[in-house]
Amino acid sequence: MSDSHKKSEQKQSDQPSPALNYLLLSAGSIFTSMLIAGFLVGYVLDQLFETTPIFLLSCAVLGFIGGLQKVHKLTSRLDPPPKEEKKDHENA
């Protein structure tokens, strides 16, 4: 095999699958749904306990953090795993 053919095969293997690209389309909706769910849970708890918006704000912050974690986990799938470098030229 020629060097250019090996390089093109290596570039193709480094690219993520198209299915992962479609998963990224849902990243915005995942983040938004987590935030809205936090607001709704906080609102219900505030109505249940008849409190000021303490639960609304705290659950919204938790929803924001949870949304960031989910989006980070989703986008980390696109990062290729680290490859160990082979020592071809030890004396060079």
TrEMBL record:
Q: Which UniProt keywords apply?
A: Membrane, Transmembrane, Transmembrane helix
| Keyword field contains Membrane | yes
What's the superkingdom here? Bacteria
Instruction: Give the stretches traversing the membrane.
Output: 20-45, 51-68
Task: Give the protein's recorded name.
Answer: AtpZ/AtpI family protein
Record the organism: Thiomicrorhabdus sediminis
Taxonomic lineage of this organism? Bacteria, Pseudomonadati, Pseudomonadota, Gammaproteobacteria, Thiotrichales
